Amino acid sequence: DQQVKQNSPSLSVQEGRISILNCDYTNSMFDYFLWYKKYPAEGPTFLISISSIKDKNEDGRFTVFLNKSAKHLSLHIVPSQPGDSAVYFCAARRIQGAQKLVFGQGTRLTINP
Amino acid sequence: GAVVSQHPSRVICKSGTSVKIECRSLDFQATTMFWYRQFPKQSLMLMATSNEGSKATYEQGVEKDKFLINHASLTLSTLTVTSAHPEDSSFYICSASGRNNQPQHFGDGTRLSIL
Q: Which residue on chain B is closest to A105 by alpha carbon?
């Protein structure tokens, strides 16, 4: 049972344009969502998070949007830069109780010059 | 930002060997540490959660006698893969979390290859 899904395994975007990565979840008990970026042979790096009391959180070039009714979140990167090329994982958890994260399958983002 | 150090980064060893992987939080006290496993082109799968000074909680399907976890201090957790076999070859990643609502910070992972 895949509780967190990233349906696009890969995405190519031109440098300077907007990258939009999508994530869907099925467990309505999740109330805290995170995006991580991962380079090969490295651990994931935390990018940005959002709690279910918000529908948007922005940090520099990164913005995460949460649509609770649709159980959908997205990460917007604008403008996209070549260094953004990596695998992006969304993750979800409950704020209270066990802190364990449930990860999506990841989306490989490639920024083309 | 928070730093988590994982060592070694790569291990190649013979079948039957036991391998210990260390995970350290360098600049914060990690009340909880997590161990994940990642197969090629797949997501990170949580193996176990450990709290300092208590027994680890293993996810369903993870053999606790095969994957020994020790979280002896607020800055160190170890994962020992006992009597490793080729099917245990994988990328193992630890993460650490401080206060309850802080994001997990990950180590750089350990590539384990069992011949």
A: B43
